[in-house]
Amino acid sequence: MSTALLTAFTCGWMTLPMSFFLDGEDGKIRCPATAYLIDHPKGLAIFDTGLGTRFERPVGTPYQSGADLESDALIGSRLTAIGVDPSAVKWIINSHLHTDHAGGNRDLPNATVVVQAREWEYAFAGEDKAYHLPEYDTGQPVLKVHGEHDLFGDGAVMVFPSPGHTPGHQCARVMTPTGVAVLAADCCNLRRSLDELKLPDHCFDTDQYLATLKMLRARERKGERIFFGHDPDFWAQVPQNKPLDLAART
Ligand SMILES: [Zn+2]
């Protein structure tokens, strides 16, 4: 069976109303913007690129705003720090094109963007302020997919639709040597979203969102490991900057 190594990175932090993730809940949550390196024998891919330079501040200077990126947390800097050349990345899989998921696309200049065609169209429609056009209107090649897509043709990295948060949201299933990971991004922000089938206070389509959560729940019951999009408690348990050992995770 073909496999790929998976490495996690934090590419910025955001402070958001808790109700953005769990409808009806009070308070705020400080949550990570996440990105992953997928190292496959046929090339390198990145799943989501975190926050971009519009939120950047120099390392060590005070935290200033709700979306916050120390300059060493840009995806290109994260890669360089572990000895990977950002210009060697062949593919960017964007779960969707919101600013905390496509912010670092420009930092990977030779990558082709893999996105659902429906997401691409919606991002250019200008109906949702969470999209920031300069971050994805970059001139990079774009592979617009319709439904499932087997990135390397061997089943190791399968992209599949997970609509609801946005119309063209997608996940990636990665077969690692130590287990199967599903990178959920914003179709499942928190562990509680899945356990309680609880929706955010706003999304593109609530019926689709719920159907996607149920699909993820079925995958989890099959033994696939769900990587939640913005869960700080979950994220604290995920080792970063080195290939994940899914068998070792609690
Ligand atoms: Zn997000």
Structure, briefly:
It contains seven helices and 13 strands. The protein is an alpha/beta fold.
Structure, described:
This protein has 250 residues and is an alpha/beta fold. The chain has a single domain, classed as 4-Layer Sandwich (Metallo-beta-lactamase, Chain A), CATH 3.60.15. Helices cover 20% and strands 31% of the residues. It has helices at 75-81, 99-102, 117-125, 133-136, 191-195, 206-221, 232-235; strands spanning 5-17, 28-40, 43-49, 56-57, 67-70, 89-93, 112-116, 142-145, 149-150, 157-161, 170-176, 179-185, 225-228. Strands 4-5-1-2-3-6-7-8 form an eight-stranded mixed sheet. The protein has a five-stranded mixed sheet with strand order 9-10-11-12-13, with helices on one face. Zinc ion is lined by residues 98, 100-101, 186, 229-230. Residues 98, 100-101, 186, 229-230 line the site of zinc ion (ZN).
The CATH superfamily bears the name: Ribonuclease Z/Hydroxyacylglutathione hydrolase-like
Number of E strands:
13
Mean pLDDT: 96
Distance between the termini: 24 Å
Strand order of the largest sheet: 4-5-1-2-3-6-7-8
Name every ligand kind in the structure.
zinc ion
Annotated CATH architecture: 4-Layer Sandwich
In CATH's first tier, which class applies? Alpha Beta
Strand content: 25-35%
Q: Radius of gyration, Cα only, in angstroms?
A: 17 Å
Low-confidence sequence ranges: none
Our count of helices gives 7
Structural class from helices and strands?
A: alpha/beta
Sheet bearing the most strands, described? 8 strands, mixed
**Tally of structural domains:** 1
Q: What is the helix/strand order?
A: EEEEEHEHEHHEEEEEHHEH
